[in-house]
């Protein structure tokens, strides 16, 4: 690399690092607010909250890296043009492709990082996030049970304990269970003890009363059934008492590309999910190349414009508009391919066609007039 290459590469690299980290931190902050209740309402430590939400960062980086690569490339070259640095470099005999070399190197690094994240880091981190989230909501229900607080363990189970001893003994217990539709159950017991079961934590209740509303039938009206017991057991895992139903399903983001393109027949996935997974697999493979395509769009708009003494906002506006349109088209193409896999080639056209068109512009755009620097324009 020449001194000019190193100079431009340093500006592009530092800017890309700062913008990407800053934007990822902003997205992480906004998205992590969804999990703040785990700290405020359920007693998890701040360290656990940061570790849990930090597992989302690879997904954020994979999404925003192509965008920040474009933004940094476009505005760095627009600034160099406004500061007359590109004018001097062109006067020294450097072509547009020669000027674009540092940006293409940065975009190549961004593409390689995107491939690494999409092929390995994103599924690994998202799988760890989902597993930890599942454990918190189900197997850690006993930990989330707080003394003197009505604790909601899922949407259908509420538990209250007046006192909780250090050994796990509970006193003054109330359980409201709505996991069976139409037959809510309320249990009150003098004391109980938390134990581990095959489907998650359970609480063994001693000396209590079980009240259950039985629905009306053709021969009798609805009635309240009251049962006194010496010992009873309640599963605290949210959802149902069945271990099979508490099993966690893996979504597309925690599967590797090979699993998305060739789903395991043993899973008996519906055809709709298979189509969605195949489209997701091709999007994961193609999306890193949008970093290179978007960077070349920024280069084409910045380098194809001439010099204006008082600056020119039009290249930046044109480049931003084109990338916004490309992002919207990417969403539309992804949704179309998920419904109909025959549209999967459009995913690759969307990822690669902008780069080919930008390369045509940088090569001189045969047949199109090229604007010359206007040194006298005031």
TrEMBL record:
**Top-level taxonomic group:** Bacteria
Q: Known InterPro entries for this protein?
A: LptF, LptG/LptF_permease
- Note one Pfam family from the annotation: LptF_LptG
Q: Name one GO biological process term.
A: transmembrane transport
Q: Where in the cell is it found?
A: Cell membrane
The residue ranges crossing the membrane are 56-78, 99-121, 285-304, 316-337, 343-362
The answer to whether UniProt assigns keyword Cell inner membrane to this entry is no
User: Which GO CC annotations does the UniProt entry carry?
Assistant: ATP-binding cassette (ABC) transporter complex
Q: Which PANTHER family match?
A: SLR0882 PROTEIN-RELATED, YJGP_YJGQ FAMILY PERMEASE
- Which NCBIfam families does the record cross-reference, listed alphabetically? LptF_YjgP (TIGR04407)
What protein am I looking at? LPS export ABC transporter permease LptF
Q: Which organism is it from?
A: Teichococcus rhizosphaerae
Which gene underlies this protein? lptF
